[in-house]
Amino acid sequence: EMCRTGKGDLYRTNIWLNGTSGSSSDCHQDPFNNLLCQLHGTKTVTLYDPASAEALYPAINTAQKNTSTIDFAHYERQGDEFAVDEQRYPLYHDPSKRTRYGPVTLEPGDALFIPHRYWHYVRTPNVSASVNFWWL
Q: With the CA atoms of 92, 98, 103 and 104 taken in that order, what torsion angle do they form, in degrees rounded to the nearest 10?
């Protein structure tokens, strides 16, 4: 039987377990609304609105067109911003091309709503567990 949530079907529920510190997901967008719930440890999430796609340099002609080609894991943070290579990714540095939200750090008991098609980069600095729910 299909689960229902709000006005739509619950598409999928995922459990994310991280046993090593310092892992991350590529910056990407999902075609579903996402409620990310932190159970153990912490996660730091940075969001970008859908209009920021050009500045995030989406992958082209690949299996994962929903993924940015900017490898945020290799760039240090300067305050709340990533020190992304300005020559390689000039549009990322144009404030008219992107809108960033966060970063926000989720602790056990916290939940973050990530609207469908919002780009997000997730960094997990420690052992953690979380669950997310996808729906339209």
A: -160
Does the pLDDT value for residue 88 go beyond 70?
yes
Pairing label, strands 119-124, 23-28: antiparallel
The angle at the Cα of 45, spanning 41 to 136, to the nearest 5 degrees, equals 105
Q: Strand, helix or coil at 117?
A: coil
pLDDT at 78: 83
Minimum mean pLDDT range among 16-20, 35-39, 51-55, 94-98: 16-20
The whole-angstrom separation of Cα 70 and Cα 84 is: 8
* CA angle (99, 121, 97) in 5-degree steps: 25
For 58-116, the DSSP string reads: B--SSS-TTBBSS-GGGS-EETTEE---TTT-GGGG-TTT--EEEEEEE-TT-EEEE-T
